[in-house]
Each structure stands twice: as structure tokens, then as C-alpha cells.
Amino acid sequence: xxxxxxxxxxxxxxxxxxxxxxxxxxxxxxxxxxxxxxxxxxxxxxxxxxxxxxxxxxxxxxxxxxxxxxxxxxxxxxxxxxxxxxxxxxxxxxxxxxxxxxxxxxxxxxxxxxxxxxxxxxxxxxxxxxxxxxxxxxxxxxxxxxxxxxxxxxxxxxxxxxxxxxxxxxxxxxxxxxxxxxxxxxxxxxxxxxxxxxxxxxxxxxx
Amino acid sequence: xxxxxxxxxxxxxxxxxxxxxxxxxxxxxxxxxxxxxxxxxxxxxxxxxxxxxxxxxxxxxxxxxxxxxxxxxxxxxxxxxxxxxxxxxxxxxxxxxxxxxxxxxxxxxxxxxxxxxxxxxxxxxxxxxxxxxxxxxxxxxxxxxxxxxxxxxxxxxxxxxxxxxxxxxxxxxxxxxxxxxxxxxxxxxxxxxxxxxxxxxxxxxxx
DNA sequence: ATATTAACCGGAGAACTCTCCACTTGATAT
DNA sequence: ATATCAAGTGGAGAGTTCTCCGGTTAATAT
Lengths: 207, 207
What we know:
The structure is a homodimer.
Chain A: H1 14-34, H2 41-47, H3 52-58, H4 62-87, H5 93-119, H6 134-150, H7 158-174, H8 177-186, H9 191-202
Helix pairs in contact in A: 1-2, 2-3, 4-5, 5-6, 5-9, 6-7
The structure holds a DNA duplex.
GO molecular function (chains A, B): DNA-binding transcription factor activity; transcription cis-regulatory region binding
Keywords (chains A, B): DNA-binding, Transcription, Transcription regulation
Organism (chains A, B): Cohnella ginsengisoli
């Protein structure tokens, strides 16, 4: 997971690296100007002055491009989460869950455009159900651990584990762009209110 | 909502009505053979022997077409739900919620293809966040009522109402095609297990 | 019967996503 | 230096969604 540059079998050809920069730059510029949702792969290719084929060689779709654009911020998010878990290791699981959710909502508020870009993807190509996408997959593990701990001492019970997995899944769909945007735009909730409601719904236990 | 034929200001031109039948027939045939997700509007138009423009004149997108194809079944679903609510009017709200969810899951299992077709829709055209689509909108109302009743006597409390709305929203995203399919295909849960888990997650109160 | 006209039809075409593949080029070995 | 060849490039093109609009036609009024 930590192979960024150098030490790889075939580092990357110079022209390829240059194109990658061009793509990233163009995408950033266009996303910034028109919003991630409105920008097409075509536009990005044109702006980067490369052919569509070249763009698709590197990023199978806009999702992957957006993900690459956020990579650093995602790492930061998980650092924050781990720090929070460390700090509150003696707190209740629901306290920790609230913290995680709050951190994620903060992240979403910053990178909403790109996050939505990551999640949107033509129904056909959907390789894996995004529950397994890197970001959500990693988050899922963390959430499951909290839910399991919340179930008291019977953590090795299969039913308890299954329910923890399920709850984590549900919390993640609740945090998906689609659902989150609906709460903001249709229901008119503030980020803080959303965090509050999620807590009431998924881990109402008192601290 | 109950204007099917006759009594409308402009009934519908004869040729238009004929085309509608052709479209419905073609769609049904193709969906049945290749699955709703794989069939394009183009194919439907070709199969129905009409131009693409004619197809789009009637149905803005595949969503609407699928919805029209399910209209009757949706009415039946709500009839079932109302009957269930009537029968169990003295039961606990969580019992009723379980019943509703179970009924809906049964519906989904039958009409999964079409339901997915209704929900999938290109990100751009998304008129309203599907939380307001007829099917989900109506379901939402019913769910809210149950959640409110579940909160005991303080049903006029604004916070209680807000939370009921939120929980209903969350339950509905949990029942969306995307989430449901993931539980079935990725997690390998049976419909019954999904109903069970939804109960544990969203209304764990004992009956 | 005839005229009127709103509804309807169909196909061209703009935009897109994504694939394929003939061609080019940079990195490596000799 | 030169040959080699995988990696990289770009654009044609297949297949979609959806819009526009000139021409057509069925229902209604006269």
C-alpha cells in the first residue's frame, strides 16, 4: 500500500509521468471551475491535450480519477480517525462511533464534489459494489470493531458479528453521497444535525 | 392519481395509444429476455418500431418506463401493506414495521429487475433525489407514522418527529436496490436474514 | 366535407463513455 | 551507438442518452 514512487519494477516512463501530471492538473482546474459532476472525461482529455484513449488507459473512469485526486486527503482522514480512537480508547464505543462519523462528515463537507465523483459510476461498469471500494472498505473494518465491542462480552458470537457487519454497512450507505446529499438538500439538515441523527439511529446508547 | 383512461381532457390519440402499447410490449419482452439493466432505450425503440424521439416523448428515461411497467404491482403492494396495518393495528409499532419491511422485501424479490431500473438514473437528470419518488415517498409516510408511534406519548415533539423522518429515510436507503443487492450478493444474506437484520438495526424494541 | 390545430412521429445529431488497435517512443541491454 | 520491445499514445468508432424540429395526422369545429 506504500509504494508511491521509486523502487517499483518499472517506475513509469517520462512521457507517461508528464501526462499524468497534465491530467491531474487539468482535472483539478476543470473540477474547480465547473464542479466535478459537470466535467466529462472528454473535457479533461481535451484540457490536458491528450487523446481520450490515453486518459482511459490510466483511469478506467472518473471515479478512479477522483480517488487519485483525493488520495492524500483520505490518508489524512484515516490518520485523524486513528488518533481519535487512540485518544478515546477508554471511552464508550458509541462515543468513538460518534467521533468517527463526525470526522467523516467533516471530510465529506470539504471534499464533497470529489467524493460524489468517486461514488457515481455508470451502473454497467460497477466492478464492485463500492462497499468494497478502498475508502469504504477500510472504514467498514473500523466501524465493525466498534459495533462488536458495543455488544458487550459476547464478541465471538457469530450472530453478533453478523449484526455488527450489517450495521456498519447501513451506516456507510447512510453516509454515502446520495443519502447525505438528500439529508442536506431535501431535509435541510446541517452537518451537525446529521451526525446527531445518525447517532440516535445507529448507536443510541448513552455514553 | 386514478386517471387511467377515459374522462381525461384529451384522452389520447389513437396512434399514440397504439404506440404506447407497442412500447410497453417491447420493453416487457426485452427486459424479460435480457434483464432490465442491459436493455437500452434505443433497443426498446427499435423493438417497438418507433423512433427514439417518440419513445422519449412518452418516457423521459428508463426509470419512468419501468415505473409504468410496475404501476399495478405497486398498487398491490400498498394494498397489502394497508391490510397488514389494519390487521395488526393493535400490535406494537415494531411488529408493524417488520411486517412492512417484509412485504417490501417480498415485492423487491419479485420485481427486482424493474425496481432497480426505476432507481438507476443518470446522475445529471436526477430530477428529485428519489426519496421523493412516488413509491418511496408514499412508503416514507407510512414508516414515519410507525416510528412516531414508537416514541411513546411525545409524538408532538419536534425532535421526535425529526428523528422519525430521519429513521424512515435511513430505512429506505437501506432498502434501496444498491444496498439490498450488496447485502444479497456481497454479504450473501437471504431475504429473510435481511429483514431480520433490518429489524435489529432500526427497531430492535421487543414486541 | 373541409379546415384547423394540437399532438404526435421519426430521424438527425450533439455529447458522452469506453474500447480497440496501429503506430510511436523511452528505457534497457548489448 | 543501436537494437529491442514493452509501455505509451491518439483517434476512429461502437453504442448510449437525450434534444430538436420539420413534417404528419387524428380529433374537433365549422
